[in-house]
Amino acid sequence: MNGYQIKNNFKAAGIHGFLLLVTATCLFPLFWMVRSSLMTQATIFTDQSFFPGQMHIGNYAAAWMDGNFGMYFLNSIIYTVCVVGGIVLIASLAAFAFSRLEFPGKNFFFYMFVAAMMIPLPGGFVPLVVLMNKLRLVNTRIGYILCMINVGLSLSILILKTFFDKMPRDLEDAARIDGCTKLGIWWHVALPLARPAIAVIVIFNALNVWNEYILATLLLNDRSLMPLQRGLMVFQGAHSVDYPVLMAGLTIAAVPIILVYLVMQKQIIKGFSSGAGENIIFLGKRV
Amino acid sequence: MAVVGITGCARNPQTDNTLVVWHWMTDREPAFEVLAARYERATGIKVRFELYAPSDVYSQKIVAAAQARTLPDIYGILDKKKIFAAFIDSGFVADLTDYFKADEGRWGKSLFPKALAVNRFEKGNSFNVPPGIYGVPIDVTNIQMVYNKKLLAHAGIFEVPRDFDEFLEMGKILNIHGITGFVTGWGERWMVECFASNYAFNIMGQDKVMATYRGEIPYTDGDWIKVFNVFQRLGKSGILFEGIVTKANKYAEQDFALERAAFAFNGSWCVNVYHDMNPDLAYGVMLPPPVNRARPMRIWGGAGSSFHVNARSPRKDKAIAFLQWLTAREQQVYLSEATNNLPANRNAGASVTPALTQFAEGMDHTTHPTVWPYNEDALVTEVFDKAIQAIVIGEKTPDEAAREIQAVKERRMKKKR
Amino acid sequence: MESLTLKKVAFSDFKDKCGNLFFIVPAVAIFAVFYIYPFYKIFNLSLHEWDGISLIQTFVGFRNFRELAVDKIWWSSMGHAAYITFIALTFQNALAFALAVACDREIRMKRFYQVVFFIPPILSEIVVGLIWRWILDAGTQGGQQLGLLNHFLVTAGLPHLVNDWLSDPNTALTTIAIVHSWKGFGWGFVIFLAGLQTIDRELYEAARVDGAGPWSIFKNVTIPMMVPVILVVVILTILGSMQVFILILSMVSQGLVYHTEVPVTRILSAMLESNRFGYACAMGVTFGVVLIAVSFIMKTLSDRFKQ
To answer: Considering only CB atoms, which chain B residues are within 8 Å of C268?
Structure first.
C-alpha cells in the first residue's frame, strides 16, 4: 500500500465512521420502539436491558384487533393515495406553468402561494371546520382529502417549480418543434425529468397525511372514516398509557411509510445517472 | 362501489332514536360502550359515544361545532366557568334545574351536592347566568397527596407528616436514603395552580383570596409571600423530583407508580393508573400537610366529569332521560368498578376499592374554582403559575414574583374599567 | 396593414397566454376555498375581541395589534423560535448537506444510509418525544441515573456534566433545538440529494479534465448549481423551525416558565387558556407577516448572490 492509498483509506474510514455514528442515533429510536413493543406493561420500565428477556408478540395482535387497525389502516391508505395523487397532478401543472409559461398575473399567483406557506394557521383549523360544515363536507372522505391537498399544495408547487426551472430548455424546444402541445410537454418532458422532485413531494405529502391527526379528528365523526393516527390515540389514555401495545401500533404504522420511502428513494437516485442524452433518444422514439 | 367508497357520501341522517355523545375519556370508552348497549336493550334507544382525544383536540372540536351549530345531543365542556357561562348564554346548554327539582328533588338529592355545585350557577353570579343547574356529573374526584408506604418504611418513617415543616424534614431523611421525596405534574399549569390554591386557602382563608381576585388585596401582601415561600422552600429542600416543572402529570403518575418518589400530589383517577402499572404498590392517601395547622386544609374536588345537554337538540328530553339513567345507582356502581373512579351517586359508594375509599374520605374538604364567587383573570393566572415555576427552580424570589404578578394584575384591572 | 397584423398577433398571443391560466386553475380553486376563506376569517377576527363561543364579537380595530407590539413575552417567543431556527439552519442543514454529498458519490452502503437518515422524520412526534424524554431524564432512583444521557456521563467518568437538560433554563431551549434538528435533517438530506443528483455529471467531467481538484469542483460547480435548492431548503427550514410546537409540548409540557415559549405555543395559549380568539388571530397574522418579510429578504439576497 502506498501513501496515497493509505490516505484514501483513512478518508474513507473517516467518512464511514461519521456516517455510522449518525446512523446509530437514527436507528436507536426504531430499535427501541420494536424492543418495547415486545415487552409487557409490567416489564417495560423495570427491564433496562437492550433485548427483552421474553419476546411478547401478542402486543401486535392486540394492537391490530383492539385498535380496529384494519379499518383505520385502509382509511389512511385511501387518504394518502388520493391526496398524494391529487397534489402531484395539481401542483405539477401549476409549477410547470409558473416555470415555463407566460400568463397574466403569473407573479401575483406564484407569490400568493409562497406567502401562504408563511402564514401558519394553527388555529386556522376551527374556521376551516366551520367552512366545511357550510359546504356539507364535514365527516366526508372527499372533504378531508381536499383539505389535505390544500395543506401540501404551496410547498409542492415551490419545490417543483425550482426543479422545473433547472430543466434544460433544449429538450422542451425539441418537443415543441416536433409538435407537442403544452400539456404534452408537461406530460412527456417535464414530469419524467423532474422525477427526483416528484419523488420528494410524494414522500413529503405521504408522510404528512399518514401522520396527520388533528384535522382528521376535527373534521371526521364516524369511526369508519378515521385514519390510523386515531387508532393510535386510543392507546394513549389521558392517564394510563399502554406502552407496549402503543409501541406495537406505532411500529405497524411506520412500516408502510418506510416502504413508500424505499420506493421513492429509488426514483431519486435513478434520475440523472447518464445525463440528458438518454432522454433525447427516448423522445425521438415517442414523437 | 369503489368510487363511492373513496369519495364517501355524507353520513346517514341521524335517526330520531339515536343519541350522540361526544367525550374525551379514552379510559372509559369500553365502559361507556357496555352501558350504551344496556340502555338500548332496556329502552330501545341507541346511544352512540364518540371519542375525541386528547382533551385539547376535543376542546377545539367542541368550539368548532359550537360555531357551526353542529353540537351533539350530549357533550362535555372542559373549560373555565366563564366559558361554560358563554356556552349557556349562546343557547348551547339546556337548563336542567326543573328536572333536578322534579319529584321532590329526587334526582338532585341522589347526587353529591359538591358534584352538582360545579354545574350550578348561584343567584347573583358574576357571569349573569340565570341561576340553575346546567350539567350532570357522572363521577366525583378530588386531588390529594399519596405516599408510598414501602419507601417511607425503608427510610424509617412510619407516620405521615402532620404539617409542612415535618414534610420537608422527611424529605431530607428520604434523600439520605437515596429516595426522592415528592413528584407531581408541575409542567401542567393547572397543577401548579391547584397546589398553590390549597396552600393559599390554608394560609389566609378563602375570603382573603377572593378579595385578592377582586383587586382589594395585592399579591405583595405578606400572606401571599408566605404562599410563595412554600414553593421556595420546596425548591431549596431537595425534596422535589428532578424536572418537576416540565413534567406532565401523566409522567409524574408513572414515576410514583414505579416507586421513584415517596410522595405525590394527584387526583383520585390515579388509582386506576397505579393499578395498571404496579398492582402491588402499597400506598395511602392523605391531605397535603398544612402550613397553618389552625385552619383546615382545603383541596380541590367536586365533579370529575360532567355532561351537558344541547339545548337545541330535537332529542333533548331523551338525552336528559339517558343522563338520569347514567347517574342512577346501578350504572354508577358499574362505572365506578369498571373505571376505578368515585361515583357521583351517593348510594353507589359501597363498591369502591379501599384506595378509592381513602380518596372519598377527603370529599368533605373539597372546594373548586367553579364554585367560588370570583375567579382570577386568565392572564394574571398565567403569570402567577409561571412565576411559581420560576420560584421552584430558583430563578425568582417570592418578592420578585409577587411584584411581577401584582404589576400584571394592576394592568388588567385598569383595562377592565 | 402592418399594425393590424401586429395587433392580431398580439391578441392571439394574449389568448394563448390566457389559455395557460388553465394550468393553475385547479390549484388556485382549492387554495381559494380552503385557504383564503379561513385566512380572511382570521384576519377579520384579529380586529375583534372574542372568546370563541359567545354569539357577539366586539370590534376593536387594531387594538390587539397595538397590545401585541408591546407584549414582551410574544417577542421573546419569536426570539426563541429564531434561536431554534438558527441552530437548524447551521447545525441541521450543514449535517444534511455533508451527508448528501457523502452519499452522492459512489460509496458502499449508499442505499442503506439513504434509508436510515430518513427514519427520524418518519417517526411520529409521539415516539420522538417519548424516547428523547427518556434519554434526557434527570431523575434518579436508588442512586442510579434514570436518563440514558446522564447515566452515560456518569459511567464515562463525567458526573459533573450531569444536568437537568430540559428543566435548566440554560440548556432547555438548546436541547429542544438539537432534538428538532435531529428529527429534521432527514428532509434536508433528501432534498439536497435530489438536487445533487440532477447536476449534469458532464459538468464534473469537464472540470476534472480541466485539472480542477475536488475542493475547487465543489466550490465552482456543485455550490452554484445547488443555490436554488439550497434556497428552498433554507426557506423550508425557516418555516418548519419557526412553527415547531408539538415537540416542545411533548418534551416540556406547558413550558419551563417562559423559556421554552414559541409563537405557536403563545397562540394556542391565547386561544385555549386565556380564551382570547381575536388576540390569537392577531398573533397569527403578525407571525405570518414576519415570516414573509424574512423570506423576501432571503430571496433578494439569493438573487443578488446569483449575480
So the answer is: 56
